[in-house]
């Protein structure tokens, strides 16, 4: 009889859920919280790069159309890109920049012409290790395009 009572008391204690809610909460909380925090880190890194590239492209196109000569315009656009990307913590050397002009690609500062600046760079994912032993971390390509019109009142030829 005594053995049966002990057995039934042990079964009752094991079947009881008392005290396991906090453990379940911590386990599920950690399993959900870690991916959520990583998602926030990735999205914030991509958003920062996107904002930096957009600002750099927009500023480069603006200074390009306001310059007096095309070499001065290219130099001003390069400086604007370098400064803006540095403000956002991006390497200007890693960015791919393309400047195109319409309607005449040979004369970018033609009155009422359009200057388009395209910038692209690869943003490494935070805390992502190199894949398959390669020394290249996982990354996402981010690009921005800005177009500005040359003023019809621009002085010059």
Written description of the protein model:
With 157 residues, the chain is an alpha+beta fold. It has one domain (23-149). The protein has 3 helices and 3 strands; from the N terminus they run αααβββ. It has helices at residues 2-15, 20-66, 70-87, and strands spanning 96-102, 114-124, 139-149. Strands 1-2-3 form a 3-stranded antiparallel beta sheet, with helices on one face. Helix 2 (20-66) packs antiparallel against helix 3 (70-87). The model has no long low-confidence stretch (mean pLDDT 86).
Strand content: 15-25%
Strand sequence of the main sheet, in spatial order?
1-2-3
Major sheet details: 3 strands, antiparallel
- What is the tally of beta strands? 3
Low-confidence runs? none
> What structural category characterises the helix and strand content?
alpha+beta
Q: What's the end-to-end separation, in Å? A: 111 Å
Give helix and strand order, one letter per element, not per position.
HHHEEE
* Fraction of residues in H or I helices: 40-55%
Helices, by number, come to 3
Molecular shape: rod-shaped
Q: What is the mean predicted local confidence, pLDDT?
A: 86
Q: What is the domain tally?
A: 1
Q: Which value, in Å, is the CA radius of gyration?
A: 29 Å
